[in-house]
Structures are given as C-alpha cells and as structure tokens.
Amino acid sequence: MTTNTIPLTEVESSQIHAIGHCPETNVLAIQFKSKAGAGSIYHYSNFTPEQFAEFQGAESIGAHFGKVIKPAGDVFPFVKVS
Known about the structure:
Elements: E1 9-10, E2 16-22, E3 27-34, E4 37-44, H1 49-57, H2 61-69, E5 78-80
Antiparallel strand pairs: 1-2, 2-3, 3-4, 4-5
C-alpha cells in the first residue's frame, strides 16, 4: 500500500482540510478536519487525474466528496494512512 508521500494542498471546506493526488498510482489523498485543525489522512484508490481535476474544481469540495467519492467505496477503496 502507498505511504503518505502525496503532497497535500489546503482547500476551502468545512470538513476537508487538504487534498492531493498521485497520477502514477491514481491515489487520491484527503486530509479531513478535526477540532484541533488538520485531522486524519485517507488514501482512495482508482482515482484518475481527470476525476481529481473535477474534485479540485468543484463548487463545494465537501459536497463533491459526499456525492461522488464517499458513496463509491467499491469503486474507490480507501485506507486510513495517518
């Protein structure tokens, strides 16, 4: 499995702190927010660069995550990395 070496970029979202993507492995990295600031990081597999561009450009990063990524656990299997 991948390690947490995907660079993250902070985003404007009430639930997501930062996102990143590795085009070589098609892994999406999401760092969620916690009460203390930056929280846990999860890696989602099978996420293409085109899908990442859509995610980055979404009007609401959190809503896009909730509608497209979160319900598709069979398509984008995930693992908590930190």
